[in-house]
Amino acid sequence: MKSEAMINPTGNLNLEDLLHDCRPLFMVHKNGRVHRFVGTDEVPPSVDSVTGVESKDVVIDSETGVYVRLYKPQNVDKVGVLVYIHGGGFCVQSASSLGYHNYLNNLSFKANMIVVSINYRNAPEYPLPIGYEDSWAAFKWVFVINHVESWLRDHADLSRVYMAGDSSGANIVHNFAKRVKKQGDETPESRVTYPLKGIVLINPYFWGTDRIGSEEKRIEPTGFNSLMDKVWMVACPESSGLDDPRINPEMDHELGDLGVDKILVTVAEFDILRDRGFYYKDLLLKSRWNGDIKVIETFGENHVFHLKKPDSSKAIELMNKIVEFLHS
């Protein structure tokens, strides 16, 4: 498929030519062309003039082009590591997108941690599970012994590794927490452990066939329920549907097998995905998982507001709470 950015999603369109209409995120034409409406404003790595945080891109797989963007605060010796996975419905955004670059630059500074921002290949050109597998390869790369990447070799304390992500990125993080546990359960001869202190799920993209909470009555007139339905099926066409355990934790018989002891979930009052965040906590507390989970809600805001208006008082407050969790 060919990818093409498009500024005006409501311009003159031949709707009969569309294979998938997932506006305001993207559209897929029958000829395979993809129009993306968000996340196309990419920026290069830099040294931030305000925070002093330095960033650089490192390709971890020359065949696939999968890379990570690293962020390193000034004057660090050994500090913790935050592995971050961007959102965008598995289909838009990248580690180079302006919003993520600015946000993670500030988060690296405030948390005084090295941040590893993973750039996986986007659906629909590369349908899931490719995005999961790309991200997992990058996650494992962080733990390479005697690392060839000097920032990780010289400054990363790999006993203090956290993962975080927003929206679909949070979905990937959740699924990785299970995968970490499975790695530790393998036989001693083949066991590879990836110590993970905790995970942060920001406005996580979980969904399901049945509507829960206030989803139906307060959101459906805007069409976002159907958008959530479509995005998953476009991103993961091999899926069994909206009750695939990767997108619907309620249907996951292994939900309690998380390889972390603490989880922070953040939700926003007007977010279509708000109720899923609270439901995720309820499901975990009923499972065999015995860790600590906390859900914090930001009132008066919508999905990923922290990226859209990062200088707002509520976005700053949210970042401070995340930093507190990372150092608790």
Automatic annotation (TrEMBL):
Active site, renumbered: S167
Entry-linked Pfam families: Abhydrolase_3 (PF07859)
InterPro entries: AB_hydrolase_3, AB_hydrolase_fold, Carboxylest/Gibb_receptor, Lipase_GDXG_put_SER_AS
Single GO molecular function: hydrolase activity
Ranges of residues in domain Alpha/beta hydrolase fold-3: 82-306
Annotated signal sequence range: none
Domain of life: Eukaryota
Family the entry assigns: Belongs to the 'GDXG' lipolytic enzyme family.
Protein name: Alpha/beta hydrolase fold-3 domain-containing protein
Native species: Saponaria officinalis
